[in-house]
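Lab notebook, page 48
Experiment: co-folding of the full assembly
Goal: obtain a model of how the components sit together before planning crosslinking
Operator: M.T.
Materials (sequences as entered):
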Amino acid sequence: MTGRDALIGIACLAGVALLAGLPFVVADYGLSLAINIMSYTVLATAWSLFSGPTRYVSLATVAFFGIGAYTTAVFVETLAWPLVLLIAMAIGSVVAAIVGLATLRLSGVYFVIFSFGLAELVRQLVTWFEVNKTRTLGRYVFADITAAQIYWQLLALAVLVFAIGFLIGRSRLGLALRAIGDDETVARHCGIDVTRAKVALFVLSTVFMTLTGAIMAPRWTYIDPAIAFNPVVSFTVLIMALLGGVHRLYGPVLGVVPLALLFEYLLARFPNHFSIMVGLVFIVIVYVVPRGVVGLVEDTVRRQAAAKSAA
Amino acid sequence: MLLEVTLSGATLGGMYALVAMGLTLQYGVARIMNLSYGELLVAAAFAALWFYTGVAVSPLVGLIVVPPLAFALSFAIYRVLLQPLVRRARTRDALEVDSILATFGLLFVIQGVMLAIFGGAYFSYSFLAVPLQIAGATVAANRLLALVLAVVIGVGLYLGLTRTRIGTAVRAVAVDPVAAELVAIDVRTASALAFALGGALVAASGVLVSMFLTFNANLGVVFTLKALVVVIMGGVGNLLGALIAGLLLGLVENYVAVFVDPGLTLAATYAIFLIVLLVRPQGILGRASR
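Observation: model returned without errors.
Model output:
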């Protein structure tokens, strides 16, 4: 470990410690904004964990987020909290494994289409189950969890997703994934079990989405399928990750912070035209910064370096 | 009972087939994976509603007026919004990802506009809602008319693509854009044409659907999804495949809705989709490629 690496490590620890102290200094509104940003940080980073290297656009974030939220709503009053999180993880992983095994053996476009409707499918199944079996549409979530505790859990989850992303980047799996992203046929000929690598990563990334949903559920106190499986969440995560840049681990955060603040403003200012605004912001991002803020910065640095060496 | 369910399933299937034919033109020829596709259908349905209830013009007139407008709009969308992406993309996969992202944004814009104008409520209007007796089964006249018109449009499209020079050029681009360029086909124009034609088709379907279905501003996504499933099931770029797969999906959905549970139709759609993916990923009539 060089001195520079040690310094970065210490800076990260200090940053986490500072963020952990946040609930003691800010008021309620600040805390709810921080929770919002933190949950999207986990979601966007988890999203790009899978979609960054493989380049498969997943539109199913909210399917897993909603599964997590619903698991909490069903079990929170009868089971211990860690057990609830474990159950959410298990359900999310099983669904992700089924989806991954069915679609990831094929060309990426099947996966996109499947993920496009997955949230709607899960929502209809949950609705059907609730109406026909439990006869209650909508549930109250009464949990003895404060906003600060939710924030700390999300912070822990964020640290975990960054740590795992960092480790994957340095593992054989990470190398295999980069090879798949560059050229799947070549990767397969190098002896990489392409399907297994993709499914494993997909399941891993969805576990974080499911957990975020499970942790966030007590914030609402009341959920029904339309709230838990709101497609805008998938969309927002996608925009944030793309704006930041998906080919670096820290990229999505750079998109999350400005966009979370912007959406907060837009939602307060134009509540009825919110989705038009978000759609327009998104189109602009796709055209103007296709490789994200990180890509933009890296291109500028490279160009300046080239200009310097030419001079 | 069975005949009634089959007939109304065939009507729904005919709509799916028509919608999917348009999408297979957009995806198979212009190589644009258009996630905002269904929004145009809903917009056309709203246009037909406005024609009928606002200015008392029959949806049949709407069927003549709306598709050309959708054609022009789609053509403009392709030229302004999507052609820069086509030019930027180095590979087909890159274009696929870019077009998915751009049209996903477009989806929210169009949906947002419709929500702002009409709200989230469900709409329908009563046009030709008279029961007809066919071989002992009762069918609403508007459904039957929609089915007949869908067949007429579908057959017209099929003949246009197989019997005319432009149609042949469009099909050539679907098979191989590079080779098509080598035999002096203007790939760009053919792509724009196919994309616009797809838009006109989905708008026509929207007018037909509005005659017998209740719709709201959020319905577009469901139609896009079903059209995508039908396109994959039938084989990308294959019109006959889209026809068969569309009818199949409509029938299965209606059987499930009537005999099992109306809440499980989407699950049935996904079940069929999964089976096709596992057994014949190239589609029912598709050729193995890629």
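Interpretation: Residues 2-279 of chain B form a domain with the ABC transporter involved in vitamin B12 uptake, BtuC fold (CATH 1.10.3470).
Next step: discuss with group before ordering constructs.
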